[in-house]
Specification:
With 222 residues, the protein is α/β, with parallel strands linked by helices. The chain has 9 helices and 6 strands. The chain has a 6-stranded parallel β-sheet. Helix 8 links the parallel strand 4 and strand 5. The protein is elongated.
Length: 222
């Protein structure tokens, strides 16, 4: 088996924005005495943000109208405080450097908007590692649909079986599996207890295995 490309998700995998977004929503909800259930919130993790609307849920829970715009601003302020000084997840840079060293094509496939992904990558000084970046605007259907992955694979001219997808969420893993890629999940604090339908390999952290070792492991299984 020849691995020619690695394709990374962004939110929750490269930088754990997902956990801190959930925490920021929790803080807003608790000001109203309401708990935000993870099992409902997780519908939007790694997929379309409209799969679950926290503001509608809050309004239904308290039984009164809310000022969405004010709450969005408040929620974002809380998130900005939480994300401050939070860098990429452990091992991410090692994997990117190793992929470059191995001559692999490096892609990014995210259901999030371009205007969200790029500032984060720039802040982390990671933009230069990626040969192809595809986001929400590049496809008709985001994850769990495989379109984002097919888009990157087509750009690279690489077959699914010659590429590895790195994901942290069930929606993302479903997309990669549907694209028939080798799917390595690296769940974060928020997604570690969620149910994943299928995947090739699970890591607690990218520090667990060097990229070269991971590829050797996949080759030994093929």
């Amino acid at each position: 088996m020849l691995i020619e490309a690695v394709i990374f998700d962004f939110d929750g995998l490269i930088r754990d924005t997902e956990t801190l977004e959930f925490y920021s929503f929790q803080e807003v909800f608790r000001e109203y005495g309401i708990e935000l259930p993870l099992e409902l919130y997780c519908k939007r993790i790694g997929g379309h943000m409209n799969a679950f609307d926290p503001y509608s849920y809050l309004q239904e829970s308290i039984g009164n109208p809310i000022n969405r715009e004010e709450l969005r601003i408040l929620r974002r302020q809380k998130y900005d405080i939480l994300i401050r000084d939070v860098n990429e997840r452990p091992g991410v840079v090692n994997y990117l450097k190793s992929a470059k060293k191995l001559g692999l094509k490096i892609g990014l496939a995210s259901s999030a908007p371009y205007e969200w992904v790029m500032p984060n990558l720039k802040e982390l000084n990671l933009v230069g590692y990626f040969d192809c970046i595809r986001t929400h605007e590049d496809v008709k259907n985001v994850k769990p649909d495989p379109e984002l992955y097919f888009n990157v694979l087509d750009y690279f001219g690489v077959k699914s079986q010659n590429a590895i997808a790195f994901e942290d969420s069930p929606n993302g893993a479903k997309a990669a599996i549907a694209a028939e890629m080798h799917t390595v999940i690296v769940p974060n604090e928020l997604t570690k207890d969620l149910f994943f339908d299928d995947y090739t390999l699970r890591l607690n952290s990218m520090l667990e295995l060097e990229l070269e070792q991971l590829i050797d492991h996949l080759n030994s299984k093929s």
